[in-house]
């Protein structure tokens, strides 16, 4: 369970107000997409959630606790560019996080631990479609493959929230489509919360379960920097009950087929009541 | 007729063109030397290649009576020792200070202007101070090299650290890296190729300081020998020594380049 709350968050640089009165609360397993015109503060919003920047006023809560004032492992990130390490191979890049967590001084695993981690990293790389490129360097990969790598690198840390800052902005349309599919699937599989910034509307509504638009509500032509942007609209793009009933149907179908195929229902059985209770609660 | 910048030589032609200036200089020297030797066989200013050869063979294979050493090898050993010590200390200083000061904002704010000012002090101007402080021995010569080169390397490494995209550093933090882990795992490996380049660029300056220090006071060394035999107009020693120093510098540069290619393949891929 991961919830995010923005409580009356403001961001000002000296006299310039960038964001004002941002209030938002986000339930578990949402895919929030932030849209808005260029330079309006979408990325600032994301950076505050990442603790790359601090809010001037207000606070941001993750699971009811104020977020740390510096980036930490509970919030993973994929930027538009430069989010992989050029001096490590693809496999090396994915293995960096766990090695840092487990080996404070050397940052490197040896022996059995290393092999276990390699196996895990390879499984993840295969999942994102980079299995056969594991021993190349990032500079030898295309833009789309580099973004897949950045995703795998972030996912191996199992972050509560995954932040995506225009992750597909530099990709060609075909690559972008396949990345959309991948991100959607990863979001379902890992049941995490994703917050993504984009300026591509179709992309926002394709992926997001909730889409918020950030823009200036008031504007003073004499002093354009007097007022900041805030959330001007908030759409529920994919209704939670619809989402969950679809997941429920899929799950029931799977269990039915499993029951028909052979007598091994014990493993799958608990899944159905879990969804039932979720539906009842909604 | 295309623009001249659009004509590029083929690889074979390129090699011939590259050799051309060397051959031209050699030819001019031989012609001028022959002309002078024809008039005055004992001419000292432009000796023939034969006398270069005999002098060098003498210096490399016979023991000098004053020092009881093979002079060429002894001079080379002394100079290279000074050069390597000076370059090594500068590289280590540059790496450690450059990374720490470049990476930690508080240290950067404190020391960056200081290093900038420090690197503007002409090293040869403080040579007398070094002689007074460290005596006329080896220490002052090595300190001179370090004084001349380390500030450049430190600043170069700092610039490289600053050029690492902020996204990478943020990403490393979201992967749970501590400051030490980021230095060891993200900054250091990416700075190393640049350090090698910056040592390569410093080679010329390092030789300058070695020779300058040796010229003023020394027991031996390539620079010392050149300045010593100047009194006798011994061009048959000076010119081969200059070529020998150039060759040594070239070999070091080449070795460092090969090292960078072998040790940091990812950097080559990125450049390509």
From TrEMBL, chain A:
The lineage of its organism: Bacteria, Pseudomonadati, Pseudomonadota, Alphaproteobacteria, Hyphomicrobiales. Transmembrane segments: none annotated. GO terms for molecular function: ATP binding; ATP hydrolysis activity. InterPro entries: AAA+_ATPase, ABC_SmlMolc_Importer, ABC_transporter-like_ATP-bd, ABC_transporter-like_CS, P-loop_NTPase. SUPFAM superfamilies: P-loop containing nucleoside triphosphate hydrolases (SSF52540). Belongs to the ABC transporter superfamily. CDD domains: ABC_NrtD_SsuB_transporters. This is NitT/TauT family transport system ATP-binding protein. Keywords: ATP-binding, Nucleotide-binding, Transport. Residues 4-241 form the ABC transporter domain. Gene3D superfamilies: P-loop containing nucleotide triphosphate hydrolases (3.40.50.300).
TrEMBL record, chain B:
Coiled coil: none annotated. It is found in: Cell membrane. GO terms for biological process: transmembrane transport. The chain crosses the membrane at residues 12-32, 83-107, 114-136, 142-163, 198-216, 237-256. GO terms for cellular component: plasma membrane. PROSITE patterns: ABC_TM1. The keyword Transmembrane applies. Keywords: Cell membrane, Membrane, Transmembrane, Transmembrane helix, Transport. InterPro entries: MetI-like (IPR000515), MetI-like_sf (IPR035906). Residues 76-260 form the ABC transmembrane type-1 domain. CDD domains: TM_PBP2. It comes from the Bacteria. It is a multi-pass membrane protein. Belongs to the binding-protein-dependent transport system permease family. This is NitT/TauT family transport system permease protein. It comes from Ancylobacter rudongensis. The lineage of its organism: Bacteria, Pseudomonadati, Pseudomonadota, Alphaproteobacteria, Hyphomicrobiales.
